[in-house]
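Exercise (ungraded).
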Amino acid sequence: MRKVIIGLSGGMDSTTLLAILLSLKYEVHCCSFIYGSKHGKWELKAATDVVAYYKEKKQPVFHHIIDLTTSFANFDSALLLTGGPIPEGHYETESMKQTVVPGRNLIFGAIMAGLAESIDAKEIALGVHSGDHAIYPDCRPKFIDSMRDTILLSSGGKVNVIAPFIKNDKSNILYKGYYGCTIKVPYYLTRTCYKDQEFSCGKCGSCVERLEAFQKISIKDPIKYEN
Amino acid sequence: MRKVIIGLSGGMDSTTLLAILLSLKYEVHCCSFIYGSKHGKWELKAATDVVAYYKEKKQPVFHHIIDLTTSFANFDSALLLTGGPIPEGHYETESMKQTVVPGRNLIFGAIMAGLAESIDAKEIALGVHSGDHAIYPDCRPKFIDSMRDTILLSSGGKVNVIAPFIKNDKSNILYKGYYGCTIKVPYYLTRTCYKDQEFSCGKCGSCVERLEAFQKISIKDPIKYEN
């Protein structure tokens, strides 16, 4: 069985990616990273619930929980417990740049690539999408292409990087999740909000983008919001 | 004061790098990584001793100890506690390839780059040298060049990667350490051996290369060996 490594935050993008790869008959190794983010414990709960959901359905899914607390201890970002408040509003506004976590995707990708090489997986798959490009330098196509080159060199050509959603926005991803894969996506278990609270706020850039995506495909978001 | 991030293993290469950067009046932030290697506890002791040595001399040096145990938990390498025995003999022999830790330098570099961006350091510096090229894909110039591109993209042009020893072997590094920097290098505190034992073995590829380097510049290695 062909193996692949993905980063699983427990959000709608990475959970859709997991479902698509399971539909394509991959054995999927999911990495969830603990890195001191405000919404971290809720994300990890979502990721764990999603993995449990597929395990119960006898899908070939494995969960690697990776603690990077000391790696990110001195990092500067509003997304982290050590940073300022999470800004509200639309993703593209200037203030949302405070939520950039320096180098996050390269750190996650590098660890996933090392694991891939170790367990003989030929690919790592990232759920980055076009909605992230404006704010996050480490989600842009040029970055992903460069990281692919670097990981190919680092691994002696053994590990490739794929990013199937790189040209999609969140509504395209949902569309694929609902209509484009043979395995159901448990969106009711996913979590997108940046805030440290049980029910999603519906106001941070991440929530706003998610709600817009559900609206676009005319499906009601199945998760609970605080209002 | 200009800041730089280095990876400090406590070996002779990274300790020389630290001394050179202090000679050049940098504020040096040293990252030491705990990643489940057999020689890890001895490396960390050496790195901590080196930092304490320079702190006592009032040098601008900071130590970030970063625990990556869960990141490397399922990695495959003879260098790790979870792997097979450390091979003995010369570095270039085929068996030494068992000591490759998949993706290690990219993981370390990615974390150092994120820290650099967070604390406004413009550069990360790596102690990789030509002696590593044959065995370790993630020490070769092409890899370092590619990682530099990737980190520049990831950080929006804020963080550069330098590798001052990339064309040097270990004897060149020692020569620079003894004769090319204004600040003394405490080689007696450094540790190079791959084995999990207090005194260096003198037989693993890493020890053999170190001993040859001291021989080449006609200086006696000041550390204790088991024989």
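Further reading is listed at the end of the chapter. For now, observe: Chain B is about 35% helix and 10% strand. The interface with chain A takes residues 64-77, 101-107, 109-111, 113-119, 137-138, 140, 142-143, 146-147, 149-151, 153-156 of chain B (CB under 8 Å).
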